[in-house]
Amino acid sequence: MTTLTATKAARELIAQLKGEHGPLTIHVSGSYGVTVICLKTDELNLGARDVLMGTIDEVPLFLMTSEIEYWRGSTLILDVAHGLGPGFSLEGPRGVHFTLRKRANPSKRIWDANAILAAGAPPSLPFKDTDR
Length: 132
What we know:
There is one protein chain. By secondary structure, this protein is of the alpha/beta class. The chain has one domain: Hypothetical Protein Aq_1857, Chain: A (Sandwich), CATH 2.60.300. It is built from three helices and seven strands. The strands form two sheets. It has a four-stranded mixed β-sheet. It has a three-stranded mixed β-sheet with strand order 1-6-7. The longest helix is centred in the first third of the chain and has 14 residues.
C-alpha cells in the first residue's frame, strides 16, 4: 500500500502558499527525474494520466500514471529543499522547492544513506595510461 505524508517544513510551506494563493494542487512528474510542481488549483490542467495519490492538509497530490509503479508500496514523503526548483512552481520565488522521496516498504532491506555518505568516496582505482 502506498501512503502519503509530509514533513513539518512542507506543511508549513503549504499553509503559507494557501494563505497567499488560495486552493492549491501538487503534481509530480517523472519526465526529467522527479519534478514536483505546486500551482493554484485553477491553473493546473490535469489529464487522463494523472492519478490522485492523496492529500496533504487538503491539498491534493497527483502522480502521472507512468510513475505509479516506481512509487508503489512506499511511503511518499513531501519535503522542502533549498535552491531553485521548477521555475513556475509557487514556492520558487522563496528560494526553495518541494521534493518527493520515498521510504521503502519496511519489510525490504533498508540502506542507511547517511552512513554511506559519511564513509566518503570509494577509493579510486590506480590510473592506467593506455593512450601513450
